[in-house]
């Protein structure tokens, strides 16, 4: 399709199909905002997704080919009610990662991909010692600060790993998707 609005709308509908719950992907109630966001997505999503695929490939390179899972990655705005930057649907094949790149600065996108890739690699949503090991491996391989859970109980480790590697949130995530970010 050549119309960016239609392309962006179709894209978001396709991403909803691979999300754990379609309602996690933003749909917007304001028609003007929805038109603006879908049009921007239709014009720019290929560039954004290419960057995310490069980060995904960097994560793959941290493991032998025989250990790599098939993973697809997409950028899309996540509904604000969920309060998350990204999601990993381990219930689909290939595993699907969705990153809301509007929620963090571009310099933090790799960190979000690393976190979700660790879930994909383990095929597990948990934030436990296994995730700690994979995140540590990925962080060391990609030049990010590795997590340090020494002396932490399971609950404290779970809380730390939920936001590791750390990323600062943007004040208005949809600004990016409207082309103002």
Give a quick summary of the entry.
This protein has 181 residues and is mainly alpha-helical. Helix content is 48%, strand content 8%.
Report on this model:
It is a single chain. With about 180 residues, this protein is mainly alpha-helical. It has helices at about 5-20, 30-60, 110-120, 130-140, 155-160, 175-180; strands at about 70-75, 85-90, 95-100. The protein has a three-stranded mixed β-sheet. β2 (about 85-90) and β3 form a beta hairpin. α2 (about 30-60) crosses α3. The longest helix is centred in the first third of the chain and has 30 residues, at about 30-60. The radius of gyration is 16 Å and the shape is globular. The model has no long low-confidence stretch (mean pLDDT about 95).
Question: Helical element count?
Answer: 6
Radius of gyration: 16 Å
- Rounded to the nearest angstrom, the distance between the terminal CA atoms is 25 Å
Task: Assign the structural class, choosing from mainly alpha, mainly beta, alpha/beta, alpha+beta, or little secondary structure.
Answer: mainly alpha
Overall mean pLDDT stands at 94
Please report the total strand number as a whole number: 3
Could you tell me the strand content as a percent range?
Answer: 5-15%
Question: Unreliable stretches, pLDDT < 50, 5 or more residues?
Answer: none
Order of helices and strands: HHEEEHHHH
Distinctive features:
8% strand, 181 residues, three-stranded mixed beta sheet, mainly alpha, globular
């Amino acid at each position: 399709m050549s119309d960016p609005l239609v392309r962006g709308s179709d894209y978001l509908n396709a991403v909803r199909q691979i999300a754990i719950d379609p309602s996690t992907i933003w749909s917007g109630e304001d028609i003007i905002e929805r038109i603006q966001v879908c049009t921007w997505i239709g014009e720019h999503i290929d560039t954004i997704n290419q960057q995310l695929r490069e980060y995904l490939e960097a994560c793959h390179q941290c493991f032998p080919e025989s250990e790599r899972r098939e993973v697809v990655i997409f950028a899309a705005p996540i509904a604000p009610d969920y309060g998350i930057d990204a999601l990993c649907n381990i219930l689909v094949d290939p595993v699907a990662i969705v990153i809301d790149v509007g929620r963090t600065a571009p310099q933090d996108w790799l960190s979000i991909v690393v976190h979700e890739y660790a879930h994909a690699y383990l095929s597990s949503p948990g934030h436990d010692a296994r995730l700690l090991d994979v995140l540590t491996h990925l962080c060391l391989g990609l030049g990010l600060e590795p997590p340090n859970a020494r002396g932490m109980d399971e609950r404290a480790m779970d809380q730390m790993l939920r936001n590791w590697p750390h990323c600062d949130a943007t004040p208005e995530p949809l600004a990016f998707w409207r082309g103002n970010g």
